[in-house]
Design goal:
With 296 residues, this protein is mainly beta. The chain contains 3 helices and 19 strands. A hairpin with a 2-residue loop joins strand 18 and strand 19.
C-alpha cells in the first residue's frame, strides 16, 4: 500500500460490543527504514490504536504511544497486537498508563503481543505496568521473534492490586507468558489463593509488584558485550532502595535479564527505567529519550 505520510493509518470496521460484554481489539504495526527514516503504518479494529508517530531523537527512531480509551480489560475482552520491525528500522512502543485487568464474572481477559524484529532492526517494548485487580482473570502474552542481527529491549511490570489504596489482590488469577521462540520461554500463573507462591521466600516473598527487563538478540551476544551489559546494571542494584530486591544475569547466550521485586510498582519502575537507560547506552550508544507521555 503506498504511503505518503510518515505515519499512515487505516481503520478497519469495528463490530458492536456483544451482549456478554466481550470487546475484541486488534492493532497491526509495521515499521520500515526509508531514506534514513523509520516510517510507520498501522491498521486497527476495536478500541486499541496508536497516536501520531513521533521522532524526538531524529528520523531514525519512531516513538509510538498505544492508546486504549476504555483504560482496562474486563472478562472476555482481548487486545491483540501484531508488530513487525523491518530491516534497519527502530521502533519504541509505550502506553500512557497502566493496563488494568478488572474483575471478571468468569471469562478471561487477555493481551497478546506478537512481534517480529528483522535483521539490523531494533524494538523497544516499554508499556507501563499491568494492574491486576481483585477477582480478575487476566492473561498477558508476549512473543518476540528475532532474526539474526535484530535486537530487543523489552520490559514487563505487574502490580497485584493497589496496596497504597488498601486494595489487595485477594482473589483472582493472572498468567504471564514471555517467549522468544527456540531461545527463551517462561510462563507463570499467579493465583491469589496460592499463599506458597505469594509468601514463600522462593516465590514472591510477600511482594505485590514484579518486573522483568530483557536485552535480547537474534544471535549469540558477544561475551565481552554481554559482560558490559551486566556490569552496567550491577552498579544500579547496589544503590536500589530498601525493599527493592533485584538480580541481573545472562542465563542464555542471546539473553540478558534483570528481575525486580518490590512492595509497590513505583520504585520497581524507577529501577527498570534506569536499567533501560544504561543498556540503551551500552548496547546501542544511544542516550535515554524517555517518551514524553511518561511525565504526564
Amino acid at each position: 500500500m503506498p504511503v505518503s505520510d510518515p505515519c499512515h493509518a487505516v481503520a478497519a470496521p469495528s463490530g458492536s460490543r456483544a451482549a456478554d460484554a466481550s470487546w475484541p481489539s486488534r492493532l497491526q504495526l509495521r515499521y520500515r527504514h526509508e531514506a534514513g527514516r523509520t516510517v510507520a503504518w498501522h491498521l486497527h479494529s476495536g478500541a486499541l490504536r496508536v497516536l501520531a508517530a513521533l521522532h524526538p531523537e531524529g528520523d531514525a527512531i519512531c516513538h509510538h504511544v498505544m492508546l486504549h480509551p476504555p483504560a482496562g480489560l474486563a472478562g472476555g475482552d482481548t487486545l491483540d497486537i501484531d508488530v513487525q520491525v523491518q530491516p534497519g528500522a527502530h521502533a519504541l512502543l509505550t502506553t500512557p498508563g497502566a493496563t488494568r485487568f478488572y474483575r471478571s464474572l468468569g471469562r478471561d481477559a487477555s493481551q497478546t503481543l506478537h512481534a517480529r524484529v528483522d535483521g539490523a532492526a531494533r524494538l523497544e517494548w516499554l508499556p507501563l505496568e499491568s494492574l491486576a485487580f481483585t477477582d480478575c482473570r487476566g492473561d498477558n502474552r508476549c512473543v518476540f521473534e528475532l532474526e539474526p542481527g535484530g535486537e530487543l529491549l523489552a520490559w514487563d511490570m505487574l502490580a497485584l492490586g493497589r496496596p497504597a489504596a488498601g486494595d489487595h489482590f485477594e482473589r483472582g488469577r493472572f498468567t504471564q507468558h514471555l517467549e522468544i521462540p527456540g531461545v527463551w520461554l517462561e510462563r507463570g500463573c499467579i493465583d491469589a489463593a496460592d499463599r506458597v507462591l505469594r509468601d514463600a521466600p522462593g516465590g514472591l516473598a510477600g511482594h505485590a509488584a514484579l518486573g522483568t527487563l530483557l536485552f535480547a538478540a537474534g544471535e549469540a551476544i558477544d561475551p565481552a558485550r554481554r559482560d558490559r551489559l551486566l556490569d552496567a546494571v550491577r552498579g544500579l542494584l547496589d544503590a536500589a532502595p530498601v525493599g527493592v530486591h533485584a538480580g541481573v544475569t545472562a542465563p542464555q547466550p542471546q539473553v540478558v535479564v534483570l528481575r525486580v521485586l518490590a512492595q509497590r510498582v513505583e520504585p520497581l519502575s524507577e529501577l527498570l527505567r534506569a536499567a533501560w537507560q544504561a543498556w540503551r547506552a551500552q548496547a546501542w550508544g544511544l542516550p535515554a529519550c524517555a517518551p514524553r507521555v511518561w511525565a504526564t
